[in-house]
Design a protein that fits this description.
By secondary structure, this protein is mainly α. It contains ten helices and no strands. The protein is globular and about 50 Å long. The relative contact order is 0.08.
């Protein structure tokens, strides 16, 4: 939680150590902690440490070198950390993860690329806004869990889209305005309706219809 580079070796050791299945929780916590550290002032220096990127990249892979499957939650956490760290090497890996088989990994890859202003994030961000896309609550088995997951995914997608448009004001936005309009008019959650309305105002003129303006 602090600007303390001395923790990096311990976090990397925890992130790459798995002697038993239960230790995947520790690996995930370590990846999440690296993301927190990277977001702090001075955290950008992590992108200069090749070993950090190497460990996180290994954690994003679907299987380990021994052939064991990597949990999606761990892979998603490592993907998110790569997006926070940023830089050319991280972005190269994130681009490959845009086509990953796990929705949470794809979503976090798009969020990371959008953070850096990379327009390649747009297609996946658009699917995150699609009201018909059931991947937004993949893995959730209860109605409450699905509602929570969808709110999280859509909120993050809207924030990322706004960030992306701030850096690429004339970016062709495709179906994003249509999905935002559907959310702004029909979503059961007032907070999502409000966020979608605000995002619609940032759309390039050709991406808005008259009824989408406020």
């Amino acid at each position: 939680e602090f600007q303390c580079s001395e923790v990096v070796p311990a976090l990397l050791l925890a992130a790459r150590t798995r002697r038993e299945a239960a230790e995947t929780d520790v690996q995930q916590a370590a990846a999440e902690a690296i993301a927190v550290l990277a977001a702090n002032p001075g955290g950008g220096s992590l992108r200069q440490q090749a070993v950090v990127l190497q460990v996180l990249e290994q954690l994003t892979r679907a299987s380990t070198e021994s052939g064991d499957s990597q949990p999606v939650s761990l892979r998603a956490a490592a993907t998110f950390a790569l997006g926070v760290i940023g830089g050319t090497d991280a972005e190269r890996r994130l681009c490959g993860l845009l086509e990953d088989g796990a929705a949470d990994v794809r979503f976090n890859a798009a969020l990371g690329l959008a953070r850096g202003g990379d327009p390649r994030a747009l297609p996946v961000l658009t699917t995150m806004l699609d009201p018909e896309n059931t991947d937004v609550f993949a893995g959730e088995t209860t109605e409450r869990g699905r509602a929570w997951k969808r709110e999280l995914v859509v909120t993050n997608a809207i924030r990322a889209l706004r960030s992306l448009l701030h850096k690429n004001s004339q970016l062709p936005v495709g179906d994003a305005p249509r999905f935002l309009r559907a959310i702004s008019e029909n979503d059961p959650l007032p907070v999502l309706r409000s966020q979608a309305r605000e995002a619609l105002q940032l759309m390039p003129a050709e991406g808005r219809s008259a009824e989408g303006r406020l």
